[in-house]
Amino acid sequence: MMGLAIRRRPVKVRFTMALTKAKKSEKVKALAVELESSTSAIIGTFKGLTASKDFELRKVIRAAGGSYHVVKNKLAARSSQGTRVEKALQGLKGVNSVAYTSGDPVALAKALSTWVKDNAEYTFKLGIVDGKVITVEQIDSLAKLPGKEELFSKLMFLIQSPAQRLATVINAAGRDLAVVINQGVEKGKFGAAAVKAAVAEVSAAHGNQPSAAAEPESATASQAEEAAGLDPAQG
Hints:
Layout: H1 2-36, E1 40-46, H2 51-63, E2 67-71, H3 73-79, E3 96-101, H4 105-117, E4 122-129, E5 132-134, H5 136-143, H6 148-186, H7 192-206, H8 218-229
Antiparallel strand pairs: 1-3, 1-4, 2-3, 4-5
Helix pairs in contact: 1-3, 2-4, 4-5, 6-7
C-alpha cells in the first residue's frame, strides 16, 4: 500500500503543475486583451489596504473610465508585450497594481490622485501615457491638467462666442441703418417710396418687421404731394 501511495504522488503533482500553467496562461491572455487597447496606465503599490478600501479604489477607477488589477510581476510583463503600456510593466518588483484606460489619462490621474490623498496605504510608482513613461511627479502634474470634457467645453465657448458677437453686430447694423434712413426722411432727403423699399429690404434681411419709427410720416408725405398738385389759382 505504501508503494502505491508513493507512486501516485508524482502523477498528482504533474497534474497540479499543468493546471497552474493553464490558469496562468489564461490570465496572461485575458490581461493582454485588456491592455491591448489601453493608451495609459498608472502603476502603484500598497501596504495594509483593507478589502473595503480596495473595493472603494476600484469603484473610483471605474468611474474615471479605467480598469484595475493587482498583478504578478512576471504575468504583467508577459501580458503587456506589444502594447502601448509595455514599458511601464517590465521589471517590476514587490507588490504592484495597475490602473489603465483607453480613454482620458487626465481623468484617471485626477481620480487616483484625489483618492490617494486620503489613503496613504496606496502610493504611485510610475505611469505611462501613449508609450512614454512618466514619474510620480509627472503623474501629479497630469492630474492638475484640465480633462477632455473641460477642454471641450472651453473650446465650444470660444467657437460660439465670436459667432454670437458677429450676429449681434449684424443685427445692430441693420437697426442703425433703419434709424439713419428715418432721420433722412424727416429732413426731406429721401423720397417716400424709396425709403419704404429700403426699410422693407433691411427688415427682411434681418428677420425684423419694420417699426413705426422707421417708416416716413405718411401725413407729411401726403401733404407735400397735395401741395405739389394744387393749381396756383386755387387757394
